[in-house]
Amino acid sequence: MKITVLVLLIYYLYFRQSLLERLLDCFVDSVEGAPSDKRFRHGVHLLDKVVLQDNLSTLIVNFHPVNEGYSLKLKSPSGTESETIRLPYEETEFLDYLDAQQLPPMLVDLLEKSKANVFYNGCVIVEVRDYRCCVNPSSYDTSYVLLRPTCQTLVADVNALTCEGEWREEEKINLEAELLLKTQSPLCLDPSPEVFNVVNQMHFHKNKYRSTLLQRSHKRRFRAYISQNRSSLPAPSCLKLVDFLAHHKHAQPPVNLRLSKSSYSGVDTWKQRTLSLAPPTEPVQ
């Protein structure tokens, strides 16, 4: 059993065109024959083009309004979508992995249990749908993010593959080496200063908004905004009945049935008036 799994895995990694190679081909196709005008940017939105051309399966992340949180959906090549989980924005663990473009280990376990075919060379393509900035509730802005595996997910995959059967330590190391070679980007060993400057600039633009102080300040302001506006926001779609009952419960102000002191004094003023008891001068008919 272990030999069959290892052979199939190595066959898949060696003889199928990797996603990175497909992105490189798409970049070359978009740059070749393009006008050499510096006002235009070529080779952008490569992941979007590859997903649409090859009809790849994606993991959908829906960003709903603040009171509804965000949700995860699985999309198959046939077009069917199934929602897996819905979380509030206070749960930032998955959002941190998404911002860093890293594959979270808890997501790997969830996808393996659902038996969804969304892995491409160890990576997962995420389709982000943002409903927060659109006036129409059914419209959204779409963007794609590629989640790459980390050392933590690699160790989890090796342990999951070798948990059944009697694997020797040498076989585990060979399996981990094959997975590492096929899931990680090739090393750049060019000692040229130009290459170093390009890599340094790319790293700066990728991580300039990910400093610890900036993220800490953003989270603190976001929590204050949530706590301030949560009471005025409507209930999520799954709690519309609760919102309706709460609105009609406090629609009318409470009526105070107790009489004030001025009311008591106004009622007893008739006792202090003098009454005219003179008989009528005209006969009563």
TrEMBL record:
InterPro entries attached to this UniProt entry: Spt20, Spt20-like_SEP
Domain of life: Eukaryota
A Gene Ontology cellular-component term: SAGA complex
Single annotated GO MF: transcription coregulator activity
Pfam families according to UniProt: Spt20_SEP
Residue span, Spt20-like SEP domain: 54-202
GO biological process: one example: regulation of transcription by RNA polymerase II
Coiled coil ranges: none
Family: Belongs to the SPT20 family.
Protein name: Transcription factor SPT20 homolog
